[in-house]
Specification:
Helices cover 13% and strands 45% of the residues. It is mainly beta and 188 residues long. Strands 1-3-4-5-6-7-8-9 form an 8-stranded antiparallel barrel. A hairpin with an 8-residue loop joins strand 4 and strand 5. The longest helix has 25 residues, at 2-26. It is globular. This is Dirigent protein. Its main location: secreted. Homodimer.
Length: 188
């Protein structure tokens, strides 16, 4: 009787292990894929050129603070949310190409620098419905800053590259900053 119980136990254990490994193989965390399966075309590099308009106050503000700034010298602890128009020209009423939406944080207790997480959402032209995600430090005292392109959607799936933001307008009275952006993006 004991031998029969042991053999039944071993049979049940063997079946359980087979089922466990079968389930694990069919429910894996990742699988291999190919360019063809993802319908990826040839890799190309695209240069985008447009302007971003930040208005930090007044009735038409496009960037607003959402936290209290803890240090007036470094803006430490500051968090701003932005919904900035992107245009073809430097004038605010220039033809729109999309919106830049994201956050600016001031993470340094010692330096006047901000970190930008920013999505460029294109709403016009051949890139309508596509987006790029930028990430990087911005020094408000520098006229030129560089950020990484860390991803994208639509036409810009699998995007990587960099963006150079050049400040061309700094108007303290209007609380306005206009930046010229040159974005170089590799995508399929």
């Amino acid at each position: 009787m004991a031998k029969l119980l042991v053999s039944h136990y071993l049979l049940i254990l063997t079946i359980a292990l087979i089922l466990t490994f079968s389930w694990a193989e069919s429910h894996s965390f990742s699988t291999k894929s190919s360019r063809a399966a993802l319908a990826l075309k040839e890799e190309k590099i695209t240069h985008l050129h447009f302007y971003m308009h930040d208005v930090f106050g007044g009735p038409n503000a496009t960037a607003i603070p959402v936290t209290k700034i803890l240090d007036n010298n470094t803006f430490y602890g500051g968090l701003f949310v932005a919904d900035d128009p992107l245009t073809l020209g430097p004038e605010r009423d220039s033809k729109p190409v999309g919106n830049g939406r994201g956050t600016y944080t001031f993470p340094s207790q010692n330096d006047f620098v901000l970190e930008m997480v920013y999505n460029l959402g294109f709403t016009h032209g051949e890139y309508n419905g596509s987006s790029l995600c930028l990430l990087g430090p911005i020094s408000p005292t520098s006229t030129v800053n560089e950020m990484a392109v860390v991803g994208g959607t639509g036409v810009f799936r699998f995007a990587s590259g960099y963006a150079v933001a050049k400040r061309i307008v700094l108007d303290f009275k209007a609380l306005l900053v206009v930046r010229e952006l040159n974005v170089y993006v590799s995508h399929y």
